[in-house]
Amino acid sequence: MKSLDELDKLREKLQAEMRIREGQPDTRVTVAMGTCGIAAGAREVVTALLEEMKKRNVKGVTITQTGCAGLCHYEPLVEVEVPGGERVTYVHVDGDKAREIVLEHLVNGQIIKEWTILKK
Amino acid sequence: MDMEELAEHILDIARNSIEAGATRLTIAVAEDTEENYCCLSVVDNGAGMARELVRRLMDPFFTTKSGKKVKVGLGLPLLKDAVERCGGRMEVHSAPGRGTRVTAEFPYHHLDRAPLGDIAGTIATLLAGNNHLDIFYRYNFNGREMYLDTREIRARLRGVPLDTPEVLIWLRQYLSENEEILHGGEDYEIARRAG
């Protein structure tokens, strides 16, 4: 059972981690969250990303959201931008793919090219 | 979506609010199985809209959004359709500079009624990448009530961003567990007797 006491302990742990990581740029993971993205399952993608990042103890990643990208037929879309690296857009992402993206791209640094459409 | 959920419609409405510049959202859901009543509302402190725009909001593909991004204009028409399918009604109140209120009321017991669904996931998702967004969420089930104010959570975090993945995971589980307990009628940390 989650409690506010547990949140206090989590805060202490995160404060210590923030001190270690201070000044280092974060990897940015952006999920398109327009009506089309939401209808296609973008919320499940966000929760899957969060859960897998926690499971794999992934640090230094910010999950953010944006509106419709104009590629409604490719939704849900997930864009990953590693500091100093290329921006990669994954398409037709679901919960399973989101977990795999965390493992392969964020943890192992390997782009899953067959799931991507655009690179900028 | 595999199965229509009211929580996903709420997410869509709230996303509109954020894109309209809202920094604070009040999301309220009330369900009463005995009174056969269900109500949801999303109230924001965004830019608001003139009356003539509000009248057109239910027109499919009408949007007030501007800029380079693509706008679809289907969020509110889809919700209206969902609400009316189950015998309910939906209203939008807005005024320039005074924010917007979207409310929907419908019978609780209806064959076509979409379930509320993962509202905790909706709240956590709204906060992802929106560290400065304040959400006040109130859920009332058969007269028993729970609420969550992100300002209280943020104060407790003492500088740790609210949208840190571990915090969002905690928040989602915390809300889900309290919602389950609320349905079961037990005592719980963030719930209290209504009134």
Q: What is the domain tally of chain A?
A: 1
Beta-strand percent range of chain B: 15-25%
CATH architecture of chain A: 3-Layer(aba) Sandwich
Average of the residue pLDDT scores of chain B: 85
Q: Are there runs of chain B of 5+ residues with pLDDT below 50, and where?
A: none
Please give the radius of gyration of chain B in angstroms.
Answer: 17 Å
Q: Reading side by side through the largest sheet of chain A, how are the strands ordered? A: 2-1-3-4-5
CATH class of chain A: Alpha Beta
Distance between the termini of chain B: 36 Å
Determine the N-to-C terminus distance of chain A: 44 Å
The count of DSSP E runs of length 2 or more, i.e. the number of strands of chain B, is 7
Please describe what this structure looks like.
The complex is a heterodimer of chains A (120) and B (195). Chain A is an alpha+beta fold. Chain A has helices at 4-21, 35-40, 42-55, 95-107; strands at 27-32, 61-66, 78-81, 87-90, 116-119. In chain A, α3 (42-55) crosses α4 (95-107). The longest helix of chain A is centred in the first third of the chain and has 18 residues, at 4-21. The termini of chain B are far apart. Chain B has one domain (6-193): Heat Shock Protein 90 (2-Layer Sandwich), CATH 3.30.565. Chain B is an alpha+beta fold and 195 residues long. A 7-stranded mixed sheet of chain B has the order 3-4-2-1-5-6-7. Chain B has helices at residues 6-19, 51-56, 75-85, 119-127, 150-157, 165-184; strands spanning 24-32, 37-44, 89-94, 100-106, 134-141, 144-149, 191-193. The A-B interface holds A 1-4, 6-8, 10-11, 13-15, 18, 30-31, 33-36, 38-44, 46-47, 49-51, 53-54, 58, 61-70, 72 and B 1-2, 8, 11-12, 15, 19, 65, 69-72, 74-75, 78, 118, 121-122, 124-125, 128-130, 153, 156-160, 163-170, 172-174, 177, 189. Chain A: InterPro entries: Thioredoxin-like_sf.
What's the SSE blueprint?
The complex is a heterodimer of chains A (120) and B (195).
Chain A: H1 4-21, E1 27-32, H2 35-40, H3 42-55, E2 61-66, E3 78-81, E4 87-90, H4 95-107, E5 116-119
Parallel strand pairs in A: 1-2
Antiparallel strand pairs in A: 1-3, 3-4, 4-5
Helix pairs in contact in A: 3-4
Chain B: H1 6-19, E1 24-32, E2 37-44, H2 51-56, H3 75-85, E3 89-94, E4 100-106, H4 119-127, E5 134-141, E6 144-149, H5 150-157, H6 165-184, E7 191-193
Parallel strand pairs in B: 1-5
Antiparallel strand pairs in B: 1-2, 2-4, 3-4, 5-6, 6-7
